[in-house]
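Dear Dr. V.,

Thank you for agreeing to look over these. As mentioned in my earlier message, I'm a first-year student in the group and I'm still getting used to reading structure tokens, so any feedback on how I've presented them would be very welcome. I ran two proteins. I've put each sequence directly above its structure. The first is here:
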Amino acid sequence: MANFYTDNPDLRNHLSHPLMKKIVSLKERNFEEADKYDYAPQDFEDAMDNYDKVLEVVGDICANIIAPNAESVDHQGPKVEKGRVTYADATQENLKACREAGLMGMAMPRRFGGLNFPITPYIMAADIVSRADTGFENLWGLQDCAETLYEFGNDDQRARYIPRVCEGETMSMDLTEPDAGSDLQSVMLKATEEPDGTWRLNGVKRFITNGDSDIHLVLARSEEGTKDGRGLSMFIYDKRNGGVDVRRIENKMGIKGSPTCELTYKNAKAELCGSRRLGLIKYVMALMNGARLGIAAQSVGVSEIAYREALAYARDRKQFGKAIIEFPAVYEMLSVMKAKLDASRALLYECARYVDVYKAYEDIARERSLSGEERADMKKYTRLADACTPLVKGMASEYCNQNAYDCIQIHGGSGFMKDYACERVYRDARITSIYEGTTQLQVVAAIRHVTTGTYKNLMDSYAEMPVKDSLKEAAETLKTLMEKYVAAVDKVNEINDPTFTDFMARRLVEMAGNIIMAWLLITDASRYSSESMEKSAKVYTKIAQAEVEKHSDFIANFTPEEVALYKEA
């Protein structure tokens, strides 16, 4: 039988990264639960075997249930009647398979019924699910909201809600409104406290993924008279209590199996999650960072299916007496698609590992005080995760859109028809660079790591790692590109004009992303005996060279006064 995990050796390579020893040790607290739960690992090797076995189950379900159902889900989609959503028949089948396999609440602690997985194998599962059906990942992947509930809810809330997620109930994050999309400070859904300490929510939410979920995390205005983020708090709404109806499901271009809802709150009973006034400032920022890593995984999964569909078609399609894959114009496209896919995946799992380390330290800090060394380590990995999250969300989502585009192109006229999966993949891909923060917003989040040197320090650390002989030329190319990057950053910093910095931000962030992703491919290909990774490392270094030199030349020959040329475009 097909399996979307075992058919991709690169996934096992990423899972075996050296940093996993540190992650597993922190996550498992030196395996103290081994005698308490029969499914808890005894040691590092046992933990890795657990992850491997569960990912095989994910790969099996994705290849043999979710992927075959994707076309049916796309055609049928969900529907809304009397304020409630009914999933497509095949979506219900997918959810049933995941629940029965125990794949809900994967990253939650065992005491709540979860598997206590680190973020890295969980994100790997999201990558695989997205390859099977991008829209279904939005339902399955929203279990990630439980992480925010675990971090900021109280003991009673954790005990009441997290086991329900682990048993298979669904979640949503109700943030955006008709007049508050990316500008969440403008959220106006009203939260009113009752004399007994409970809260009532009134207003409208829009573009809510899986909006008729069982458990909602809701951003609402709790402070009378406020208009900014300091007046917002986070609430938990339980559908069992009623008060929220689905007004309609959006008629979308893609991800049609995932209901995107407009919700009306009418005196809906809710409970405060965490402290008042920190809803946007602290809790939603944490929630969004997790969501952005999830969208990066979704983007990698889309890139994977786009590349595989294009490759299969190019091998099969004959023109002028030979398969089209033999034509340079086609195999060049395929090589670039594969390099972008592998580069995206390398950055995805690097980011996931950084998140794993700092999250583990945060969890330990709930149990005891961290040592000075541990606090310093947590600070280091928090900064790396903060830097890499917007970078991978922005770069991977743009690359998945490009790969989906090229998949259609390789199919030619056939790709424009609904007879081939690439037409659906193309539609599904488009949202990845928009939701959970557009690519432009990722640049806003990433640019400070350009100007303060985080990305340069990361490049320097990669440049010191061992490189196999066959990749030394590529490594030398990257060192030259780093010099061009530093020169571009220095020029922008010297001009010290906010408008000029903002104008150049996309180019600087892309330069950083190109170089970092190329280094990751080189170091991964040097670490693992993978011909595929080595080829992608060489191809992607060429891509990075072209992109970095293009942006470097643009910045070097541009003056602040010329920004005005673009204002009336």
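The second protein is here, in the same arrangement:
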Amino acid sequence: MKELMLTNQAVARGAYEAGVRVLSAYPGTPSTEIAESFVKYDGVYAEWAPNEKVALEVAAGASVAGARAMACMKHVGVNVAADPLFTAAYTGVNGGLVIVVADDPGMHSSQNEQDSRFYARSAHVMMLEPSDAQEAKDFTKLAFELSEKYDTPVFIRLTTRVAHSRSLVELGERTDDKLRPYEKSVTKYTMMPASAILRHQVVEERDIELANMVNTLDINRVERSRRGGKIGVVCSGIVYQYVKEALPDASIFKVGTVYPLPIKAIAKFAASVPQLYVIEELEPFIENQLKKAGIKCKGKEIFSLQGELSVLKILEKFNRSVPVPVAAKVPGRPPVMCAGCPHRGVFYVLSKLKLTVNGDIGCYTLGAVPPLSAVDTVLCMGASIGMAHGFKKATKGVSHNVAVIGDSTFIHSGITGLINAVYNESGITLIILDNSTTGMTGHQNHPATGKNLKGDPAPAVLLDDLCRACGVKDVKVVDAYDIKAVEEAVKSGIASKEVSVIIAQRPCVLLDKRPKPVMTVDGCRNCGMCMKLGCPAISRDESGVHIDPNQCTGCGVCAEVCHFGAIKEGVR
């Protein structure tokens, strides 16, 4: 039976058919749907972990116990998981261990264009890269077989265009998921120096074995052109699909194992074509290795190191006929926080007070754009607190800066930063924007929401109690829609010489589907004060301000900032 599947769903299906017992992940676009799909199968365990490091540690523990296990994350999540990753390559596995990483060329929802293939090479971990949903399912099953055969974790690498594309997938049956016997081995699983020295030798020997094996693996294959073209192309992943469409006269070496590369097989292919090109997104990962091996090829002297490739870009580089797209005249629409977003009022206050704001990763990053223009820095998950602490120390405590972080991000990697600030007597003010979900990736639960990945009730971390346990004495909980209360709390916080925490609470407006009264305008003096909120439901012309009832969520924040009482609650 075949089914049309998102590639992320196909990875989950492959894991299910491979007999995976345990999956742990942290939501991050474009990888999120893998865990959300896997948890729907019977007889499996899946969870949202607080962060990617924990997710990989959970999967590694399940692997050592003898179960097939998987950890899933986006590319920047591998940075967080790098500590266990590098050592898991030394320990090897018992049950198969697969790590799925989804890169984001073009930065559709990310802060960088990191290329995870370098992690595979640096950590000495094999990496497979599928080109569509069927391959994703098949490669996932193969990855578990290779993991157990060669005693190694194995990466599956996706990119945004592959992860979020759909194609037909042939469904299979689930294999036996019995535990492999666990045998105690200090030299294999206990990585103190004496053991690690021995296991490093094992890793190097395994690298040689894998480098030879991949030359015969059928997921690395040659596709000869029937049109007699004179060029050969080495490619993988989504780029393979682009090349097939753009260059039908080219012979292709389709790489399935981007690490280790099948160098001998590619060398043989290169010798059979007059000119060899390497077409790959981001860094010249494949190209550099081929050139190091003495294989002449062209690559990044033609294609950019930045952004995504496409059929049109490849056609242009090869001087082929390029179809002229019909350009629709659509006005620009920059991203903004949703109408009724509980973060809007907080950023309005911070902008009004002209504070330096160390921001974090999440939809509240949009507080940086006009008209709020409130956020000054965004670095990585949890960095707002550490940066605010450093900013405060550098200015000897006189700076008026605050840290802003979401509830999910605080759980992910903000707690240790807060402990550091308290321990080192920072005096920072931290604002936790608690919207009761992981908003930007599609409303996933986390340890502070009281629900697990399945949506079942789970113990909830109480953020105010947690902050007090970290040593914070001044913890205030305010309604994010109450502008006056937010402003008073912020002023009190920045006036203190000790660490203070403000928890601005309101569920994400998209979670509450109950109809609410809309806001209406009567007697507007067209002062423009409400326009400073940047709410997409509010517009303005010569006659004054107008509120779109189809977008308004009735949050009432606009009424709070109107000095003339022109905005009132109406009826929907």
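From my reading of the second output: The mean pLDDT is 94. The two ends are 48 Å apart (CA to CA). Does that match how you would interpret it?

Kind regards,
E.
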